[in-house]
Amino acid sequence: MSGMDEALAPESFSVRPAAPRRPQNEPKAVEDSEERSLAHLTQQPGWQIYARMTRQDVLDLRTLKDVDLKGKSAAEVGEMYLIANEAAARIEARFNHIEQIAESLQEQGEE
Asked: DSSP string of 35-101?
């Protein structure tokens, strides 16, 4: 390609086959020691407290709770919402990942 304004030719895209999916009820093997360490956090006495607090934080982020929106334009509010929603999604994904690892270890009988 000679210029930045040229479109990409369709042959420049590579199509990769989708990774095979495992059935929903089939546990994924947990092999990574770091993931095992994270999963074991769920067995600690404070995990339920942390889980409750994290879920509330995610909800607060998604609803922009306690955020002063006075004088903000619709564009500013929209931008704040997008950023807060992305942060909430990342926190929730990490949290859910840890719980899924713990469930997998339980199913493997390795609590």
From this structure: HHHHHHHTTSTTHHHHHHHHHHHHHHHHTTTT---TT--HHHHHHHHHHHHHHHHHHHHHHHHHHHH
Report the alpha-carbon distance of residue 45 to residue 58 in Å, rounded.
Answer: 21
Burial of 36 (0-12, 13-18, 19+ CB in 10 A): middle
What digits encode the pLDDT tens for the residues 11-39? 444 444 444 454 555 555 666 888 889 89
Write phi, then psi, for 4 (nearest 5 degrees): -70, -20
Residue 38 near residue 98, CB atoms below 8 Å: yes
pTM of the model: 0.62
Q: Which two tokens stand for residue 15?
A: 């199509």
Whether the CA torsion 68, 78, 59, 95 is positive or negative: it is negative
